[in-house]
Amino acid sequence: MALAGGRTALVTGGNRGLGLETCRQLAHLGYAVVMTARDADDGAAAARAVGIDFMPLDVADLGSIAALAERLMAAGRPVDVLVNNAAVALDGFDAEVARTTVATNVFGPYHVTEALLPQVPDGGTIVMVSSGVGELSGLSGAVRGMLSDPRLTPQRLLGLMNAFAAAVADGTWAEAGWPNSAYRVSKAGLNALTRLLAAELAPRRIKVNAVCPGWVRTRMGGPSASRGILEGTKSIVWAAILPEDGPTGGFFRDGRRIAW
Ligand code: NAP
């Protein structure tokens, strides 16, 4: 089944879990898929097994992001679909967990998207793989207010994520209204970033949506999760293959809009 018309899709964190299955399904739909992963051996082996291209990318490393962007540009390779899937959900709650989590789950998708934007054609598609745990309703009024402030910009949002990590480091996170989950903060931040980038890229008709795959049996989700990988991946692929005039600036699960 080839629906993609030779279009290229690039997936971050593609070596396992939902990222790997997203690569498989997009390849099956006829996309030229570029799998990326931070472990080059692991990633190259996974890509070989699917029969797709591989390029290394650590989303928390600016040098790695720049190298990928240069490589794609030198090859004249468009990125019609960008799936920002890579993320961490670390055990515990301390300064290092907070710092690494926002660096990977929020700064990562932001820097990857900014670096690859020159390769994304007008009308292209960006998917942020988020989570329902980032919904605003699960946050204090103070944090909800900060993340939905109409004056928010990507730079201010990154500043808020840094402020969260600093508040965890100095023990003031609770009084500032932050929850005791770096993963929750990071996905709420990613959702805010989705809204900001969707507005910023609307003039180029680039769609930017966040999706929640549900609770899925991957290394991150664990064996007790309610969904299998095929079911979880459906939400991601749905947003990746939206038609050119599809929705933008939304948060979706199973192809249906959910609350921010
Ligand atoms: P997973 O099996 O733990 O896979 C996470 C992927 O992210 C791995 O490929 C990992 O690579 C990669 N990654 C982590 N840090 C990276 C970095 N700095 N640079 C590049 N890649 C990095 O988890 P998953 O369940 O498939 O999660 C995929 C996405 O779905 C994530 O955004 C997650 O937050 C979201 N999600 C999952 C669930 C769930 O229940 N599973 C629910 C809601 C949302 P390594 O192999 O090198 O570690």
Write the layout of secondary structure elements.
Elements: E1 8-11, H1 17-28, E2 32-37, H2 40-50, E3 53-56, H3 62-74, E4 81-84, H4 95-116, E5 125-129, H5 141-147, H6 154-170, H7 182-201, E6 207-211, H8 229-240, E7 251-253, E8 256-257
Helix pairs in contact: 1-8, 3-4, 4-6, 4-7, 6-7
The structure holds NADP nicotinamide-adenine-dinucleotide phosphate (NAP).
NADP nicotinamide-adenine-dinucleotide phosphate (NAP) binds at residues 12-13, 15-19, 37-39, 57-60, 85-88, 104, 129, 131, 212-213, 215-216, 218-221, 225.
Helix residue percentage? 40-55%
Instruction: Briefly note the structural class of the backbone.
Output: alpha/beta
Q: Show unreliable segments.
A: none
Number of helices: 8
- Indicate the proportion of strand residues: 5-15%
Could you name the CATH homologous superfamily? Answer: NAD(P)-binding Rossmann-like Domain
The structural domain count equals 1
Read across the widest sheet, the strand sequence of neighbours is: 3-2-1-4-5-6-7-8
Bound chemical compounds: NADP nicotinamide-adenine-dinucleotide phosphate
Oligomeric grouping of the chains: single chain
End-to-end Cα distance: 34 Å
* 3D shape: globular
Rg on CA atoms, Å: 17 Å
Summed over residues and divided by their number, the pLDDT gives a mean of 97
Q: Could you explain how this protein is built, in words?
A:
The protein has 260 residues and is of the alpha/beta class. It has a single domain, classed as Rossmann fold (3-Layer(aba) Sandwich), CATH 3.40.50.720. It is 44% helix and 13% strand. It contains 8 helices and 8 strands; from the N terminus they run βαβαβαβαβαααβαββ. The chain has helices spanning 17-28, 40-50, 62-74, 95-116, 141-147, 154-170, 182-201, 229-240; strands at 8-11, 32-37, 53-56, 81-84, 125-129, 207-211, 251-253, 256-257. Strands 3-2-1-4-5-6-7-8 form an 8-stranded mixed beta sheet, with helices on both faces. Helix 1 crosses helix 8 and helix 4 (95-116) runs parallel beside helix 7 (182-201). The two termini are 34 Å apart. 49% of the residues are buried. The model has no long low-confidence stretch (mean pLDDT 97).
